Amino acid sequence: MTVGLFIPCYMDQLYPNAAIATLELLEGLSLDVVYPLHQTCCGQPLANSGFSHLTQGCNALFIENFSRFDYVVCPSGSCALHIKEHLSSLNQQEDATALASRVYELVEFLTDVIKIQALDASFPHKVSLHHSCHSLRGLYLAQMSELSSPTFSKPNDLLNMVDGLELVKLERSDECCGFGGTFCVFEEAVSAKMGKDRVDDHVVSGSEYITSSDMSCLMHMEGILKRNHSATKVIHIAEILNSKSAPNIEPKG
Length: 253
Fold this sequence. Notes:
Layout: E1 2-5, H1 9-14, H2 16-27, E2 32-34, H3 44-48, H4 56-66, E3 71-74, H5 77-86, H6 93-100, E4 103-105, H7 106-114, E5 116-118, E6 126-129, H8 133-138, H9 154-159, E7 166-167, H10 183-186, H11 188-204, E8 209-212, H12 215-227, E9 233-236, H13 237-241, E10 248-249
Helix pairs in contact: 11-12
């Protein structure tokens, strides 16, 4: 199995430790992981702003970089979902559709493809989990609280495998943090207020670390935490799972 590692541009520039943790975690699974050096932004900001017709260059480069891999793994629910649902090409639509079906967000890949059963990882801290809107309502990594259905959470399942980690309970488990990509730029006041409410729930719970599969949401909340001089920190889920990476996986076949 050969995996192409897709790292969102903001993570590459601002949170390289989360990207490195993703790489090390996947390599710890004895996977052949390749990072295409010419990858760039997936084009999501343009598309979210109503300029999807200007993303063809991003789409063509993504297809060129990642078509040769069995799977493409991305440590970001929003970027992964954008590619899965919106990758297109004027001249290579068949290739684009086939490639989009092989794109997985990191948690999704670990639970649904690799099927991790145990982790040799240790993180002795109180941790609260933020379910991003894209990962929750787009990728269905967890059950939405508004539905009367059996609850599940793929990130929860992985975090419960980490030795010493205490997963604290929130009052509102799947509330939006207010980031919303370009929403936080065009609706700054609303975004900031939503973020403050979301952060308060994590802090009141006694959480030492807020984690998520979306670093963009964590970035938004980190800004609020720092302005409040809070002791609570943010950390990408890959960094927790990679604290010692020697996972046991379910045999295939």
